[in-house]
């Protein structure tokens, strides 16, 4: 189980405030499927909230300890039915995809300047259109009706 300093725990609690629960633990407790889902969520997000349903307070404390011991993560916070845990994401530099040589446009600047790859055609320019003639609906429209004077004067 990872140990956190109080300042780390404070900053993680602040980050966790805006999170929604990723995993729910029901009355069946910590099943292998739930453990796998928590592990997958920790790999993806580092900091997750877990909602517990129908579990007593003392059992929630034991559940938090069991999750942290099983998955090697740190307990951050336990409020009511919510548990917050943290595990630092492992650095996976070898599994990252290699950046492509060409930019998204299809060809690099060198290739375009050498003329090896034809450049994209320029978009057509639009010319200004004359204003449209008034339609019958516009001609029939009446201006705003005259405003009424306020003749109530306390009556």
Automatic annotation (TrEMBL):
It comes from the Bacteria. SMART domains: CRS1_YhbY. Residues 2-98 form the CRM domain. InterPro entries: RNA-binding_CRM, RNA-binding_domain, YhbY-like_sf. Residues 91-155 are annotated as: Disordered. Keywords: RNA-binding. SUPFAM superfamilies: YhbY-like. GO terms for molecular function: RNA binding. PANTHER family: RNA-BINDING PROTEIN YHBY. This is YhbY family RNA-binding protein. It comes from Candidatus Methylophosphatis roskildensis. The lineage of its organism: Bacteria, Pseudomonadati, Pseudomonadota, Betaproteobacteria, Nitrosomonadales.
């Amino acid at each position: 189980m990872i140990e956190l300093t109080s300042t780390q725990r404070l900053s993680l609690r602040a980050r966790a405030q805006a999170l929604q629960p990723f995993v729910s633990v029901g009355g069946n407790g910590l099943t292998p499927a739930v453990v796998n889902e928590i592990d997958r969520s920790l790999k993806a997000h580092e900091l997750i909230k877990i909602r517990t349903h129908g579990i007593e307070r003392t059992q929630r404390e034991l559940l938090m300890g069991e999750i942290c011991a099983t998955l090697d993560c740190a307990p951050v916070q336990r409020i009511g039915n919510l548990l917050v845990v943290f595990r630092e994401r492992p650095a996976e530099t070898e599994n990252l995809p290699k950046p492509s040589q060409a930019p998204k446009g299809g060809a690099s600047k060198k290739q375009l300047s050498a003329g090896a790859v034809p450049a994209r055609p320029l978009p057509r320019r639009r010319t200004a259109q004359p204003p449209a003639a008034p339609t019958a609906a516009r001609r029939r429209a009446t201006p705003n009706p005259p405003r009424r004077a306020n003749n109530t004067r306390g009556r």
